[in-house]
Amino acid sequence: MTEPSASMLCLKGVAIGRRRGSPLVQALDVTVAAGEILALVGESGIGKSSILNVVAGFVPKPGRRFSSPWHWFDGEEDLQYSGSVTVNGIPIDGTPPEGRNTIGMVMQGGVVYEHLSVLRNITFPMRMAGVRGAQQLRAAALTLLREVGLFDDLEGDDLDHRLRKKAASLSGGERQRVAIARALAKAPSVFLLDEAFANLDPILREELFDRFAKLIVGQPRCAMVVTHDLSDLRLVQRVLLLGPGKEGADYCYFRREGGSFVVERASGDQSDYWQTWQNRIEAIGASPAPR
Amino acid sequence: MARSRRPRRVARQILLFGLAALLLSFALVPLAVLLLASGLPTTSVQPNGIPFEAFSQWRGPRLSLLWESPNRVLWSSLARTMAIAISVSLASSTVAVVGTYLVTRRRSPIARRATQFLALAAYGVPSVFLLMAVQPLLLRVPMTSDARVWLLHFFYILPMAAILTLGYATAHPHLLDRSAAIDGARWRSRLVLAYRANLWRGHLAVASIGALISWGDIVFSQQILSGSSKLLVDLYILRYFENDSTVPDYPGASLFALILAGIAVALALVVAATNRRGI
């Protein structure tokens, strides 16, 4: 087992570009330490999800060799990247997504496998890793459910009944919890959330993000979160703001210090875009502390 | 206002009901005719039709006909027919399901449209013409006639299966694939997941349709041919090529088939270019 290092996730000199067309992100240096949540914000289409996809392994490097003939059929990504990505000091470039054991991801809207039971959904990564014992899987699922606060008021037959039900029967909030529990099942060092709580009502959304933050802050894990809801910034330690630059997106870094966000790396540009976003982020930082 | 709409609504419902009744009669009339015909005395069927008086002797279907010696061959033919139809359909639909799933995972509109075009163009060529095109090759390869028919039907059903399963495969969300990949699922597990989530429906539908098409093609020969020639139409034609020294105007027939295939290719091009999803 790899010991968590201070800079758990490290992106060095990462540039993301289209195969045919303009670059998306240039020379990005990001480090996320254990126990930290980094939020990625900025206008739509600026490259936030692409950065997450680089870390997840969905964006290839130029000239990447297919690790198996099956990978020829991988999605025709228009994007490719250069630079390096390391987790706990170990480079993960070139490793296909299914081989990135240190990464857990919750997709847009919280994807669940609707045709599988809740139990099989949560234990899916464990079964893919070769764990077969029914008792072991069930015990792990119950632990994960407790961590995400799902069905914690149930026990006995009621709990069994809910675990056996198809995930298609879950409500919106329950789906997100199952998706987080499934990502947790890999025991990842790095969590990636790509607008995972979109389309939820604000109260439920806030409750889920609070719970998610508790899973990261002070734990040997870190997270990168793409969000359009700036209220999420109340609970994050760092913010990466992406915006239009001369060649691809430029970026600006904020770090939480005390009760406010301070600029750690400013964008070279001083246009209204940066000023407006900086004001918004600083306003969130100055808002009352999270419950 | 509401009063003036009512007669129109009633008229529309009568029209729809009439259409539904017409469609139902299309399905039921042949069955009723078969039911009536199966109970007639054999001698009552004349070359110029069936006299109405014959129906006065109708006492229900004559099930004993099924066991009479001229029809014994029917049972072995039916068993062979069923075996070929089901195995061909299962094999071609399985290949189509896996193939279209993999093609759509590339998320390339060109790859998807090319698959759709090729499948439509290939399916547009009637099976008899397909047989004509490949028969010189089929006859050279050492295999039994049944195996030749199996192969022929496989390649005939495959494009149709690909056309139909392409829609199911396209509809399978990429986010599910990606989510499964990051959860540690390799290709085989992802395919199984996609199959159990969505693709099985397409497989079932296509395998059923394929079996019915093969079955229909084969059963047709059972009904229109007699004696030892109770073979599949395609096999009958194949035997014709094999045994008959007076080969018909093969180049002329090939040219005719080519023209029809050209029409099919042109139509396939239009459909593939304009259809964004499956059919």
Core attributes:
heterodimer; A: 291 residues; alpha/beta; 8 helices; B: 279 residues; mainly alpha; 75% helix
Please describe what this structure looks like.
The complex is a heterodimer of chains A (291) and B (279). The mean pLDDT of chain A is 84. In chain A, the strands form two sheets. Chain A has a seven-stranded mixed sheet with strand order 6-7-8-3-9-10-11, sandwiched between helices. In chain A, strands 2-1-4-5 form a four-stranded antiparallel sheet, with helices on one face. Chain A is globular. Chain A has helices at 48-56, 118-122, 124-128, 134-148, 156-164, 172-184, 202-216, 272-286; strands spanning 7-18, 23-33, 37-42, 79-87, 90-91, 103-106, 190-194, 222-226, 238-244, 249-257, 260-265. Chain A is of the alpha/beta class. In chain B, helix 5 packs across helix 7 (187-224). Chain B has helices at residues 2-37, 72-105, 109-124, 127-140, 145-171, 174-182, 187-224, 233-243, 250-274. With 279 residues, chain B is mostly helical. The longest helix of chain B is centred in the C-terminal third of the chain and has 38 residues, at 187-224. Chain B is extended and about 75 Å long. Chain B starts with a helix and ends in a 5-residue tail after the last helix.
Topology (SSEs and partners):
The complex is a heterodimer of chains A (291) and B (279).
Chain A: E1 7-18, E2 23-33, E3 37-42, H1 48-56, E4 79-87, E5 90-91, E6 103-106, H2 118-122, H3 124-128, H4 134-148, H5 156-164, H6 172-184, E7 190-194, H7 202-216, E8 222-226, E9 238-244, E10 249-257, E11 260-265, H8 272-286
Parallel strand pairs in A: 3-8, 3-9, 6-7, 7-8
Antiparallel strand pairs in A: 1-2, 1-4, 4-5, 9-10, 10-11
Chain B: H1 2-37, H2 72-105, H3 109-124, H4 127-140, H5 145-171, H6 174-182, H7 187-224, H8 233-243, H9 250-274
Helix pairs in contact in B: 2-5, 2-7, 3-5, 3-9, 4-5, 4-8, 5-7, 5-8, 6-7
